[in-house]
Amino acid sequence: MDYSVVAVAREDDSAIDEPLRVAAVADRLGYREVWAGEGPTWDSFVLATAIGRATERVALTAGPVAVSVRDAFGIARGAASVAALVGRPVGVALGTSSVRVVEGVHGVPRVRPAAAMEASAAAVRGFLHGEPGEPVAPGSTFRRRLPPPGGPLTVAAFGDRAIATAAAHADRMLLDIVSPDQVRMLRGKLDAAADRVGRTPTLAAWLPVAVDPDPASLAQVLRSIAGYLTVPGYSDMFEAAGFGEAVELARSGADPDTLLRALPAAAAGTVGLVGDQDAIRARAEEYAEAGLDEIALVPATAGDPGGERTLTALRPA
């Protein structure tokens, strides 16, 4: 199993510079790659540049960035700009994001997201492989000056059409907060789609993780899960796992604190890696057996600044 680390701002009262701290720990411990996540707080390309300037060797992936609010050329230019400034490979991840972010934050209609993803992935892939001296876009009189960023193209996918897009255009498909059973099902869909187009993208998942969590760490993981209780494809899984009460509360519009009280500690281990080091290694093996190639660790930082304890326990050999 390959491990990478996610440095993303939590939209709560955590420190604004928490992603930089997580990335610095990951770099020092020898992790191969850090994801600079995007959200209402941080622009992913700015964050990736800051991380690159503050670290020595870790490769970077910016995103997922929302395809409804960024054009394909701008996405590829952002990755190439970061790579030029930090002097190491930079990849880019694409996602459709949510109505709450696309419309509620950016004020842009989230229309036909699967079609937007398909068009963006195809275009971004072309832009990522252009060489200096070529036109920046077909028919443009401007010439490329920056070399390609050198990192992978990742597509975040869950639905069938997005999976087909990942199979056709991405180097890697990304899942977010999934169980091993979901991985197994989605891996099968990815392999089938990839076989049809003669490609073999890898499969990664962002998973919340906390080694020997204290109550604050556990609560932080549970809060990250609560937002998925009503998402199609997730609600059934949580109900089957015995968390139906929390699902119903979420559907009724309960506030985050109410949902947190309704979720038992066991819920954290349904779609995450929580427990002692041996338990987490065993759970990671379940994900590997289900077909996952890479776990992108989203370390709890409440009670574990920078995710130091967790990332140290799981650092590469």
TrEMBL record:
It is an enzyme of class 1 (oxidoreductase). The keyword Nucleus does not apply. The keyword Oxidoreductase applies. GO terms for molecular function: oxidoreductase activity. Keywords: Oxidoreductase. InterPro entries: F420-G6PD/mer (IPR050564), F420_Rv3093c (IPR022526), Luciferase-like_dom (IPR011251), Luciferase-like_sf (IPR036661). Its EC number is 1.-.-.-. Residues 12-293 form the Luciferase-like domain. It comes from the Bacteria. PANTHER family: 5,10-METHYLENETETRAHYDROMETHANOPTERIN REDUCTASE (PTHR43244:SF1), PTHR43244. This is LLM class F420-dependent oxidoreductase. It comes from Streptomyces lanatus.
